[in-house]
Specification:
Strand order of the largest sheet: 1-2
Number of helices: 7
CATH architecture: Orthogonal Bundle
Oligomer: single chain
Largest sheet: 2 strands, antiparallel
CATH class: Mainly Alpha
Number of domains: 1
């Protein structure tokens, strides 16, 4: 059954957000729980509801988690073998200072 979904994902190179929610339901996961499982911000996943389509890598993870769950396996034990590293903050901001530092004056000869 889940093999058909995997083929669908591979052929389409994406997954509809509604199908993503169905896959999470098969594994007994909420969007928040799935986000924690893969080390993402839940809001980042929910943002895909606007476009209606999920990136392939997230769709494949959801399908595989649902497939392992349907076969009676423990996906949490399998995924715990990979240590999630915290993401580095993006941008030039430093802690406690919004927006980073102002750029120093560049004395360029024009």
């Amino acid at each position: 059954m889940w093999q058909n979904t995997l083929i669908y994902v591979a052929v389409r190179f994406g997954m509809l957000y509604a199908n993503f929610l169905d896959e999470l339901g098969k594994a007994g996961l909420s969007v928040r729980a799935f986000a924690e499982l893969i080390g993402m911000n839940p809001n980042s996943l929910s943002n895909y509801a606007r476009t209606g389509e999920l990136p392939t890598h997230l769709a494949l993870i959801a399908v595989l988690v649902a497939g392992v769950s349907e076969l009676g396996g423990d996906y949490r034990a399998i995924m715990s073998k990979v240590e999630l590293a915290p993401k580095k903050p993006r941008g030039g901001a430093r802690r406690g200072h919004f927006g980073g530092d102002r750029q120093a004056n560049l004395d360029l000869d024009v």
